[in-house]
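Backbone-to-sequence.
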C-alpha cells in the first residue's frame, strides 16, 4: 500500500527559486514520504495570500516587513541569507541615468523598496538631476524581481536593478547598498510545526547555506 505523501507548504520570495528548490529536494531525500510544495512570488504577494488563509507552513521572505504581516512563531524566526543589488544593462550605477528604459520591481516589492533606497542615496551623491533622470526613464514596475529581470532579458527595457543572486551584473558601490536580509519562520497555522521547523533547520544548516551561496546569496 502506497501512503499519500505528507505535504509541506513553503512560500518563498521569487529570488529564492533555484536555491530553495535544491534545499527542498534535499529535505525530501532526508524525510522519505514528505513532499515540499514550493510557492514563489513577490514577498508582498505571498504575505497577502497567507493573510487570506493560504495553507502555508513556512514563509521565507525577502524582507522583515512582509514577514511581519503574517502570524508566525517568533521563536522560529531566523535570518538565513543576505543579498546585494546589482545594475544590469549599463556599465555602472551612475550610468542608469543614460539608459533609455529602466525597469524596477514595484515599491511594495522588497527588491523595489531596496532599489529605491539605493537610488535615494545615489541622488545624494550624484545630485537631484541624476535622480530625476533615472525616475523619468522607469518604464515598468514589476510584481517581483524576476519579472523585472525578464523585461531586460527580453529587450523590453535597457537596464534595471536586481539582486546579485538573480543575474550577473555590476554591484552597486557599498555606500549605496541597503541592508538586505532574508528571514524565515514557521507560521502559526502550520499543520506540522515540528516538520516545518526541521525544514528551517536544513535551510540554516551547512548544506542549506551552501545552496544559497552557490546562487549568489551571502551568509548572514
Amino acid at each position: 500500500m502506497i501512503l499519500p505523501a505528507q505535504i509541506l507548504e513553503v512560500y518563498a520570495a521569487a529570488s529564492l527559486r533555484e536555491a530553495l528548490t535544491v534545499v527542498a529536494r534535499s529535505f525530501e531525500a532526508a524525510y522519505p514520504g514528505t513532499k515540499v510544495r514550493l510557492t514563489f512570488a513577490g514577498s508582498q504577494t505571498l504575505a497577502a495570500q497567507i493573510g487570506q488563509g493560504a495553507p502555508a507552513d513556512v514563509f521565507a521572505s525577502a524582507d522583515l516587513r512582509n514577514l511581519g504581516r503574517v502570524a508566525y512563531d517568533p521563536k522560529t524566526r531566523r535570518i538565513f541569507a543576505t543579498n546585494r543589488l546589482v545594475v544590469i544593462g549599463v556599465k555602472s550605477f551612475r550610468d542608469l541615468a543614460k539608459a533609455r528604459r529602466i525597469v524596477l520591481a514595484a515599491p511594495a516589492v522588497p527588491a523595489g523598496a531596496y532599489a529605491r533606497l539605493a537610488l535615494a542615496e545615489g541622488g545624494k551623491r550624484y545630485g537631484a538631476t541624476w535622480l530625476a533622470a533615472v525616475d523619468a526613464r522607469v518604464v515598468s514596475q514589476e510584481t517581483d524581481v524576476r519579472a523585472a529581470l525578464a523585461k531586460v532579458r527580453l529587450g523590453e527595457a535597457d537596464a534595471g536593478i536586481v539582486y546579485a543572486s538573480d543575474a550577473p551584473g555590476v554591484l552597486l558601490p557599498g555606500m549605496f547598498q541597503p541592508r538586505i536580509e532574508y528571514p524565515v519562520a514557521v507560521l502559526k497555522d502550520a499543520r506540522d510545526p515540528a516538520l516545518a521547523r526541521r525544514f528551517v533547520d536544513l535551510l540554516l544548516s551547512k548544506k542549506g547555506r551552501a545552496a544559497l551561496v552557490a546562487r549568489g546569496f551571502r551568509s548572514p
